[in-house]
Structure formats: structure tokens, C-alpha cells
Amino acid sequence: MSSAAITRPYGRLLASLTFGNGETILLRTSLPGYLSGRPLFSTEVAGQIRVVEVTRAGRSLVPEPSTVVMDGDLVTFAVAVSALDTLRGFLDRELGT
User: Is residue 61 part of a domain?
Assistant: First the structure.
């Protein structure tokens, strides 16, 4: 585990930790408005992208499968580096596109 990747950008995403030889990273980011009200698990991809923490109104929580996205959520993802484009797709997509 390394925190040296804190300065390593992945587009608009910054890694806060890397694991192994950099194959898996932790990323923290806000979520786009189109995801508000949707289940947080809808941003997950088995074996590639997992939500591990949400900061909501200044308080941290470990999400349950039923947790829904709320405006202003900051989300920490564990992401396989090979799935970064998939995560960017979730974050950059506009509703209905």
C-alpha cells in the first residue's frame, strides 16, 4: 500500500492510495447530479469498481446496498486501474446520454 500516489492524477481524479504494483487504487470524488436518488451500487462493476465510503454532510459512512446517492456526496471508490475509463464514463455521463 502506498500513499505516494496522492499526487498522481488520473484525469480529473486523484488517487489517494495505491495497492500492489498500482493495479488497484482508491479514488475520492463527488458524484454528478444525475446520480442523485439512484442506488450507490449502480456505480459499481463486479471485480472492477467498488464504493467503499461516502462522506455525507461532513460525516463518513460505509454504504449499504440500499444507500442512495444524495447531492453533495463525496464517494471513495476502490478501482482497478484497468477500469478507470469505465468510472470516468459514470462520472462524465449526462442523464439520458
Answer: yes
Half-sphere exposure of 83 (CA within 13 A, CB side): 20
**pTM confidence score:** 0.81
Per-residue pLDDT of the chain (97 residues), as tens digits, is 444 333 344 555 667 788 999 899 999 888 888 889 999 998 899 999 999 999 999 999 999 989 999 999 999 999 999 998 898 888 877 544 4
Whether 97 is covered by a domain: the verdict is no
Instruction: Give the closest residue to 40 by CA, choosing from 16, 73, 8.
Output: 73
Reading the block at residue 71, the C-alpha cell is 447531492
**What is the total count of domains within the chain?**
1
Within-domain flag for 73: yes
Rounded-to-integer distance, Cα 54 and Cα 29, Å: 10
Q: Which residue has the cell 469505465?
A: 86
Grid cell listed for 88: 470516468
CATH, residue 44 = 3.30.70.1450
